[in-house]
Amino acid sequence: MIRYFGQLLKFKLSITVVFSAMIGYLLGFDQFNLHHFICLTLGGILVTGSANTFNQILERDEDKLMERTSSRPLPQGNLTFLQAFIFASIIGLLGLFLLNKINPQGTFYGVMSKSSFFGLISILLYVLSYTPLKRVSTISIFVGAIPGAIPFLLGYVAATDNFDLAAGTLFAIQFFWQFPHFIAIAWVQHEDYKKAGFKMLFGGEKNTYPALISIITSVFMIAISVSPFFFDISGLTMSFSALILIFLLGIWFAFKSVKLYQKTDDVSARKLMLASFAYLPIMQIIFVIDRFLA
To answer: Are 84 and 74 in contact (CB under 8 A)?
Structure first.
């Protein structure tokens, strides 16, 4: 039974998401607070796991139709709707409670900390907007990129208790990164998504249109990622060596989108997908190393 709840949590995916929040914290703190960092990490995992579980609850019928998801606990009948719903609610509330322990004096409307507020927004957007929109339109990718970009921002806000231009810059980097990432996954899984009625690939076909969007958003991502070197963004600094590394890394990533545009095949899409998994943590680690070497 426990392993089925673990499958709902999607622990590996949750850890990947929370890694961005941890990096955001390391970029923002003045005095490292271990208690806050632990609350951020555990709270982030639980909030992400809650969103993943609610997503699987809403898509339990569609998951039966896709090879990739048919073995999940709900399609297999290993857990009931009620069990999954209670689990998602408990870990979601516990996650928000932990995030609320971070800088609770800086509240939105006197109700919750900024960290908890952004955690709640990520759950609501992911579950109530992104998930149902997947059946309607590829606008879901744009909507889904918002909660997907919140962790980087959330970590920085948890460290600084301040939602400013630096936090917005981190959000924007991860926001634009998600378009090539989503497009590559949607391309590779296109036939599976079609079985479930999900509209996940821009234009609906494997052609140059989604690849072009991937190139354009990659360019925006590169421009924003190197902006701290050229502009005075309080809280974010960048050395010349970091500028070169992040720029070259971004060019390498964007080149994968260019290859997809040229070849429009599954092999290129899979390479772009793998590159997206590599690009984000490497870029974030460069930011952190640069900060501590400055």
So the answer is: yes
Hey, what are 132's tokens? 């149902």
Question: Measured between alpha carbons, how far is 280 from 285 in angstroms, rounded to an integer?
Answer: 9
Helices marked H in the chain? 2-9, 11-28, 34-58, 60-63, 73-76, 81-100, 114-124, 131-133, 139-160, 165-188, 190-196, 208-230, 240-263, 266-293
d(CA 9, CA 66): 19
> Cα dihedral angle (199, 203, 209, 213), rounded to 10 degrees?
-50
- The number of angstroms, rounded, from the C-alpha of 214 to the middle of its chain's C-alpha atoms is 16
What is d(CA 154, CA 21) in angstroms, rounded to the nearest whole number? 6
* Residue 18 CB partners (closer than 8 Å, separation 6+): 40, 41, 44, 45, 48, 151
Query: What per-residue confidence (pLDDT) applies to 163?
Result: 85
User: Quick check: 96 and 106 in contact, CB under 8 A?
Assistant: no
Give pLDDT, residue 106: 52
CA atoms 254, 256, 259, 265: torsion sign: negative
Instruction: Work out whether the CA dihedral 162, 45, 187, 75 comes out positive or negative.
Output: negative
CA 133 from chain centre, in angstroms, equals 17
* pLDDT tens-place string over residues 2-61: 888 888 988 888 888 899 999 999 999 988 999 999 999 999 999 999 999 999 999 999
pTM for the full predicted model: 0.93
Q: How confident is the model at residue 144 (pLDDT cuts 50, 70, 90)?
A: very high
- What number of other Cβ atoms are within 10 A of residue 75's Cβ? 18
Burial class (CB in 10 A: 0-12, 13-18, 19+), 18: buried
Please provide the distance, in angstroms rounded to a whole number, between the alpha carbons at the two ends of the chain: 49
Q: Kindly give the interhelix angle for 240-263 and 208-230, rounded to the nearest 10 degrees.
A: 170
